[in-house]
C-alpha cells in the first residue's frame, strides 16, 4: 500500500510533468472507482492542472479553468486514494483508443494531458477493488479527508504526546488510524516501531516520556530516510525502492539487520505485521493472531 513517502514521491513526480498542462480527455474504465457524480468527470476536460500534491495518503490534483472556459468552477480537485493495490503510471505513449469498461485491464482511470500520448493511468491490481477517486470543488466535501487527523510530519513533539495521551489502544493501531494521525500505514508503522524499539502491542497512552521522544524521532527518521531515497525516482521504480529500505516489514523469518534475531509475524484476517522480539518485546514472541491468543 502506498504510504506517505510513496504518495509524496508520486505527487512530486507527476507535478513535475503535468503542472501547467491542459487535460484533453478523461477515460473511466471502472465507474465504481468514482465516489462522486457532481461535478462529472467530464468537467475536468479542458481544465489546467495547476498542481499535484498530497493530504495524508491521498493524491490531490488541483485544476483551474482553461482559457476556453474562464467562467467554469474556479477550482476542481481530482482526489485519488490508491488504497492497498492501486498505483499511478505516467506515460508518453498512451493509446488514443477509449478504455473498455468492465475489461480485464488493471487500468481504472486514464487522464490524457499535454501532448497526444502524454498522461497517466491509475491502476489497481488484484480482486479486492478499493481504489477510490473523487471530483470535488472543496476537499472538505470528502468525508474521509474531512475526518483525517493531522499530518504526522506536521506535529510538534508536544502535540504528538498529547495525541498519544488521549488515545486508547495499542500503539500500532493508533499510528495507523488515519483519524488520529494521517500518513502512516502498515509497512512504515512496523519500521517506526522497530526503530523506536517498541512492541506493536504497547499501550499508546502509557508510554513514558522517553518512549514518546524516541517514537517521535523514529517517525521523522524513518520518513525522512524513505522520502530521501524515493526522491527523483521514476514512479515505476518506487515500489522496489521502498522494499529495499524495509528492515522488518515483509521480512518474516529473516534475521533482524540490527540484532540478528529472527523477524516474527502476527497475522490477521487480511493483513499482517512484522517485528523483532529482541529489539521490541524483550525477547517475547507474540502469538500469530490466527491462534487467537498471545504468548506471555
TrEMBL record:
Residues 2-103 form the Formamidopyrimidine-DNA glycosylase catalytic domain. Signal peptide: none annotated. Residues 247-281 form the FPG-type domain. InterPro entries: DNA_glyclase_Znf_dom_DNA_BS, FPG_cat, FPG_N, H2TH_FPG, Ribosomal_uS13-like_H2TH, Znf_DNA_glyclase/AP_lyase, Znf_FPG/IleRS. Keywords: DNA damage, DNA repair, DNA-binding, Glycosidase, Hydrolase, Lyase, Metal-binding, Multifunctional enzyme, Zinc, Zinc-finger. Belongs to the FPG family. This is Fpg/Nei family DNA glycosylase.
Amino acid at each position: 500500500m502506498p504510504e506517505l513517502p510513496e504518495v509524496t514521491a508520486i505527487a512530486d513526480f507527476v507535478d513535475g510533468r503535468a503542472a501547467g498542462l491542459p487535460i484533453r480527455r478523461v477515460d473511466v474504465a471502472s465507474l465504481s472507482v468514482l465516489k462522486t457524480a457532481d461535478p462529472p468527470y467530464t468537467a475536468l476536460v479542458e481544465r489546467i492542472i495547476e498542481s499535484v500534491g498530497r493530504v495524508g495518503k491521498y493524491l490531490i490534483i488541483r485544476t483551474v479553468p482553461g482559457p476556453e472556459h474562464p467562467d467554469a468552477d474556479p477550482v476542481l480537485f481530482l482526489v485519488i486514494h490508491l488504497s492497498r493495490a492501486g498505483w499511478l503510471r505516467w506515460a508518453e505513449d498512451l493509446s488514443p483508443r477509449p478504455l473498455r469498461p468492465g475489461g480485464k485491464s488493471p487500468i481504472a482511470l486514464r487522464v490524457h494531458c499535454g501532448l497526444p500520448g502524454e498522461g497517466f493511468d491509475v491502476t489497481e491490481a488484484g480482486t479486492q477493488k478499493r481504489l477510490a477517486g473523487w471530483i470535488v470543488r472543496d476537499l472538505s466535501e470528502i468525508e474521509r479527508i474531512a475526518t483525517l487527523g493531522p499530518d504526522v510530519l506536521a506535529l510538534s513533539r508536544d502535540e504528538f504526546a498529547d495525541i498519544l495521551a488521549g488515545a486508547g489502544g495499542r500503539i500500532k493501531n493508533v499510528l495507523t488510524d488515519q483519524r488520529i494521525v494521517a500518513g502512516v500505514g502498515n509497512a512504515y508503522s512496523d519500521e517506526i516501531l522497530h526503530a523506536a524499539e517498541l512492541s506493536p502491542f504497547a499501550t499508546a497512552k502509557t508510554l513514558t516520556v522517553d518512549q514518546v521522544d524516541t517514537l517521535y524521532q523514529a517517525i521523522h527518521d524513518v520518513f525522512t530516510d524513505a522520502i530521501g531515497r524515493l526522491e527523483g525516482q521514476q514512479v515505476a521504480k518506487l515500489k522496489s525502492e521502498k522494499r529495499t529500505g524495509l528492515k522488518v516489514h515483509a521480512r518474516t523469518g529473516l534475521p533482524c539487520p540490527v540484532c540478528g534475531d529472527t523477524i516474527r509475524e502476527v497475522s490477521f484476517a487480511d493483513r499482517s505485521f512484522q517485528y523483532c522480539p529482541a529489539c521490541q518485546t524483550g525477547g517475547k514472541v507474540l502469538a500469530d493472531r490466527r491462534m487467537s491468543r498471545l504468548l506471555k
